[in-house]
Amino acid sequence: MRAVERSSRFTLLVPLVMVTCGCGDGAGSASNAPALVSPLAGAVVDNGCAGGPDAAEWSFDWSDVPGAERYALQVWRTGMNLAIDRDDLPSSHFWDPNSGWMEDDSLDQWNWRVRVRVNGLWGGWSETRGFQIEPLGTDCSGPSKPDGPYALSPQNDSVVDNGCSDGSNQAVWSFAWSDVPGVEVYALQVWRWGSSDLVIDRDDLTSSHFSNPQGGWVDDHHLDKWTWRVRARVNGLWSEWSGGSFHFEPLDTDCPGPAPAGVPNLVSPAADAVVDNGCYDGWDPVEWSFDWSDVPGAEVYALQVWATGAQTLVIDRNDLSSSEFLSVRGGWVPDDGLYQWNWRARARVNGLWGGWSETRGFQAEPLDTDCPWLVVSGTER
Fold it and tell me: Fewer Cβ atoms within 10 A, N terminus or C terminus of the chain?
């Protein structure tokens, strides 16, 4: 089955205005031109019923072209203006379910051709193939068909929700159409071009909307060329179909995934706190203690400490098993480097690092502030 591109509504009420189409005879088509599939040369296609109870449904199909951005389709009767002239078709199929009807003196000498745009350039036209239309009223019988619903959503070429491959967020397909007065039931069909199976095939719907309760997801190889259509039954008679085409967003587009780790709250040192310094003679090491809040499920924590403007981190650990860390180092901080120190922490949960905490500043006390000088007879030595 093919993805359906529904044309803008138009009715071919003959005779058409006599405007010669300079469409050529199709000879010498370009090497990248699509191959026409159907209708076949000389095929007889559907006609409608006078008065419109059964509109003609014309369907055109051609081969896919690798890298195609869009296709163009032209349909005309020899010596007349273009009945269909589209250059915005997203797939290699076009279905026009509302072509009106054609009088019996205008059934022959119909033509069609297509071409493709790749990398912004249009290729040459395919061959021009001829077809004809069955006589007016061929398959009209019984009472007139009721008016059918109008497809509302998804609109043609809409991008609809997809699910998640891990099942964390399943896509729910929703379809909506206009109400039909006196309706008994609606029928809905959904399928993808190239598939012989209908994904949704319901003829018992009592309201003008439907959501597929099964959800699920569509893999990235089958996102495009989806089609849906709907019709209504009134007084035992089914209306014409109305529908459109759509495609899915890539798989896993908006999946929540594993929740990242929480962000720890810094405890100490407080903002702008004064921390320990050493002694010039090396007798007293520098002891800096850092503490932050626990994060539930944390596997490890990371801690960074640096001086503003420095090119390297004084402390850079990502293997801490608890929410506190004591650094004991020999040496000291010179008096011209006491200010503008910074620190921050983060946690890893389920293999994922959370965000960093705030960056908090602190400073070191002056050099030799609390050195263990030996005091003898009240005199420092």
Answer: C
